[in-house]
Amino acid sequence: MGNFRKIILWPVILACCGCAHAPARNQVSQPEIIISEGLAGFNVKDLAASRTAAVLDAQKNALRRAAELFMDDVSRAENFAALESGPLKNPQNYLVKHKIMSEGAEGASYRVTLRTWVLVGKIAADIRGLSLSGGQEGRLRTALVSRENPEGAAFAAAFSDALSRRSLLEIGNFPFTKDKSVNGSDDALLAASSASGADVLITAAASAYASGAGLNTGFYPSRADASVKIYEVRSGKLLLELSRQGSAIDSSQGASFAKALATAGELLAQETAVKADRLFKTDAVIRIRVSGLDGLDSLEKLKNQLFSLGLKKMRLDKYFSGEAVFLAVTPRSDPQELASAILRADTMGLELEGASPQELLFTAAR
User: Fold this and answer.
1) Residues 116-128: what's their mean pLDDT?
2) What is the pLDDT of residues 275-302, one digit of tens each?
């Protein structure tokens, strides 16, 4: 059992200066090594074709193992066909490289054992975006439509990332949000949100502009104004309107604008998370964040360990560079009580680093 370190009960600090720099995370998915096997029919006249088919089967098996980490039993059963016809149809989108460890004919079959480098973070993001991971009680499927000037996604990316980390609002990958022909009015967007199964619609507007003379200094200061409207899709009611500013400076005006938009997105998401969570009465969700994991074997062990606690609902939300984030709905309102339950069931040497009403932080002994 891991050592129960002193629990730091963090206050929720969300009052930030509108000009503070708060860039969003820009994580690049790192590959994880997965060992898998593949089988194909053995064609004695075309060994290369047999090998290619077996390798493809092994690649799909590796990708399937990674994808199913982010799905519970119900979602695996319900979304089997969607997984096979979606991400698994083009495994090369998630694979960096592979190496054949062994191969050979076995009767009428040809078998290969493959070492595969899989972009687990990318498959996880697509599983969430396609809503294949199963519904999370306590979280509301949210459609975000963002209009930015200059055109781009700096604000939307920062806002979505920060909101998903802090709030019960879960930004989904709804195709209509990228269809500019639908973006004419909020009424049209509400209709599209309803048809797509979204619970909440957020419309956002953000624009960046120069805030000083950069030509004389070689640097370009800038500001960004951002605002959001939050609608309940079922009723069509406008629940909340918020706005914030962000600022930045860079040797490139384009980069300065992007940083200012990202800062505004981060700050606006913080305020949105606090106020939106008060508006929507749902089960409380707590994040369980564990760092120091040594690959997918450790991740699978941790997942099984947490799922054995009998919590109301839980799923793996993200995994990146040895850090896993689980989302759980639990009847235990006291985070210290939940932390104690996790440590009592622990066989991995977990150590508690901190706790707040929204999140528990652990490290795993390597």
Assistant:
1) 87
2) 887 787 656 678 899 999 988 999 999 9
Instruction: Kindly report whether the peptide bond that precedes residue 150 is cis, defined as omega within 30 degrees of 0.
Output: yes
Q: Which CATH fold would you assign to the domain 139-279? A: Rossmann fold (3.40.50)
* Nearest alpha-carbon partner for 201 in 169, 225, 175: 169
pTM for the model = 0.53
Q: Is the dihedral of CA 269, 274, 278, 280 positive or negative?
A: positive
Cα(352)–Cα(366) distance, integer angstroms: 15
The C-alpha atoms of residue 180 and residue 202 are separated, in whole angstroms, by 15
CATH topology of domain 31-128: Dodecin subunit-like (3.30.1660)
Fold of 285-364: Alpha-Beta Plaits (3.30.70)
Q: Which residues pair with 221 in a beta bridge?
A: 249
Residues of the chain with CATH 3.30.1660.40: 31-128
Q: Where in the chain is the domain with CATH 3.30.70?
A: 285-364
High-pLDDT (> 90) share of the chain, % = 46
Cα 40 vs. chain centroid, distance in angstroms? 34
Enter the tokens of residue 361. 């932080």
User: CB count, 10 Å around CB of 170?
Assistant: 22
CA distance 93 to 79: 20
